[in-house]
Amino acid sequence: MLGTAAVGRRTTALTEPTADQRASRLFGDGTAEHPDAGLLFGNGFSWDGSSCTGTAACHGGNAGLLGGSAGHGFNGGNGGAAGLFGRGGDGGDGRPDGSGGNGGRGGLISGDGGDGGDAGASLRSVTTAGVGGDSGMLGVRGKPGKGTPAPVTVGFPRSGTYVTEGGSGARVELLTVQLSGGSATAVTVTYSVSNYTGAQYKATAGEDFAAATGSVVFAPGQTSATIPVTVYGDTDYEPDETVYVELTSAIGALIVRTATDGQLAGQSNLILNNDDRASGIGMTLHLRGADAATVKREFDLMAAMNVSWVRIDVDWSAVEPRRGKFQWESTDLLVREAVAHNMNVLVMLGFTPAWARSADTKSLSYPSHARAKDLAAFGAFASTAAARYAPLGVRSWEIWNEPNTAKFWPARPDADEYGALFRTAATAIRGVDSRATLLIGGLGPQYDTPGAEIPPAQYLDQLYGNGAAQLADGIAVHPYSYPHLPMDPQQRQEGGFADLPELQAVMAGHGDGDKLIWITEFGAPTGTSVNAVSEEQQAAILLAARQQVAQWNWAGPLVYYELVDGGTDPSDGEQNFGVLRKDLSPKAAALALMESDTNRRTSTAL
């Protein structure tokens, strides 16, 4: 069995120091292995390039207590300190991108302080010079080292620059790039112009702008230059599109990748500001439980019909059924596909979850159509929705659906109540996206039930009276005319398609003649229900509406209701408004839309 050494007992014999070793501890100069001098007398070790060979700072050795000069630092190391008498060591000059070392203290009774080291040259950071060492009672303080100027940086003065897209042709926009100060030598900077890789709506290379790489040269003393970006105009109404411009390398200056206040940044966005009026045709699309593959197929078919708009519901009662618990999956899917297919999104924002409405709404046929008991809650949801989808290019919002009807504003429509709701939503959304387009909720026609609807022109005049309409960017309407053609004077409802000029006259009379009337629902049901039409008649009604809207410079876009039938019962009119059947097979209207425009977006097999 092995024994255990006693605690504290030395297991090896001590080696008695020699006389020379005892003397060196009291008298003698420092060495690279032991930079400090002897305890009483001696000079501290001074480092140089042959002894301090790494990148770390080497600090000078301290001198003896009674006399001797302290050693010098190297690579930004501090100088050593003297004892009672003697000069402090000089601080070492800084390495590139490093600061200089501080000078060592001179002798307490007599001795000059060491000089501070010079700051190292840097393009990446501000380096500092060393501070001179303190002197003794009889001596001179060490000189400070020499500093280096702040590095010259290069970048863009702002993170985004808006330019007008234009209606046609190619032109060159100049994006300014700057140096933080003049350089004694020329500075060369390379750059790239490319698709934006973030979440926002991006411009398409070759269609909206020309992808490019290149370089700019700053002559000595020059602080500003420009990068040319070629942009292509078009007449499509679309979200603002982003072109990504990045500085990729620089010779003679530093590219700062992340900017703080007042600094330049190495990347910027050129934002092509849409200057086209809303136009084109669209489709209302309801998810109705469709999976991702089906939704993609639906968007492919819309693209084949040259659809440029998709109208979707952001239904508060479905998205936030419990306070603070959001279910965005359905709307996320639709928005993602719209972006992937380069389509504009029009959001119908409305309807109220049970937790946000009054208890007396339970007896209503459609309880979710009741407005919120606290409009601030609706405003909070509007803000949340805008914050989620504005970065994806969603900028058009229809506030509520047919608020001039008792069905969607129970128990009776009230323009003052709706005006308050519209103000709340508009303020909330514009607080997130100041460039958002806010539409008065789609005004439906008045049918045959007395008091159930207020005619659109009368209701809009009331909204001008309470100040709500003036806050809107346009008016959304649902001017159904079926079973008649759009301009047929025999249409059975007031506020149908043929009455749109009357609505425009109300707007013009209040100084809003330059605002658009958005037709956000228009269609006709096929099948066997009362007032249903044949598939051929449906096609004729839809195409006639498009032809008429093209003649009005105050109307558009035209959004058809709807893409896909809601069911398969031919006797239920609500299930048969689609231009596609439930199985996505096309009706005559879909085929006519595909054939009426040879410049459709994609070729889709049916």
Compose a concise summary of this entry.
It comes from Mycolicibacterium gilvum. By secondary structure, this protein is an alpha/beta fold.
Q: What is the end-to-end distance?
A: 91 Å
Proportion in helices: 10-25%
Apparent shape: elongated
CATH class of the largest domain: Alpha Beta
Sheet/helix structural class: alpha/beta
InterPro entries: CalX-like_sf, Calx_beta, GH, Glyco_hydro_5, Glycosyl_Hydrolase_39
Pfam family, one: Cellulase
Region (Disordered): 1-22, 86-153
Family: Belongs to the glycosyl hydrolase 5 (cellulase A) family.
Tell me about this structure.
It is built from ten helices and 17 strands. It is an alpha/beta fold. The protein has three domains: 27-141, no CATH class; 153-273, Sandwich (Immunoglobulin-like), CATH 2.60.40; 281-604, TIM Barrel (Alpha-Beta Barrel), CATH 3.20.20.80. Helix 8 links the parallel strand 15 and strand 16 (516-519). Helix 2 runs parallel beside helix 4 (329-340), helix 6 packs across helix 7 and helix 7 packs parallel to helix 8 (500-509). The longest helix has 18 residues, at 415-432. Mean pLDDT is 86; it is low at 1-14 and 598-606. One of its GO terms (biological process) is polysaccharide catabolic process. Belongs to the glycosyl hydrolase 5 (cellulase A) family.
Task: Label this structure with key terms.
606 residues, TIM Barrel, elongated, five-stranded mixed sheet, 10 helices, single chain, alpha/beta, Glycosyl_Hydrolase_39, 3 domains, glycosidase, eight-stranded parallel barrel
Secondary-structure topology with pairs:
Layout: H1 19-26, E1 153-155, E2 160-164, E3 170-179, E4 187-195, E5 212-218, E6 224-232, E7 241-251, E8 254-255, E9 267-273, E10 281-284, H2 292-304, E11 309-315, H3 316-319, H4 329-340, E12 344-350, H5 375-389, E13 396-401, H6 415-432, E14 437-443, H7 456-465, E15 474-477, H8 500-509, E16 516-519, H9 535-549, E17 555-560, H10 588-595
Parallel strand pairs: 1-8, 2-9, 10-11, 10-17, 11-12, 12-13, 13-14, 14-15, 15-16, 16-17
Antiparallel strand pairs: 1-3, 3-6, 4-5, 4-7, 7-9
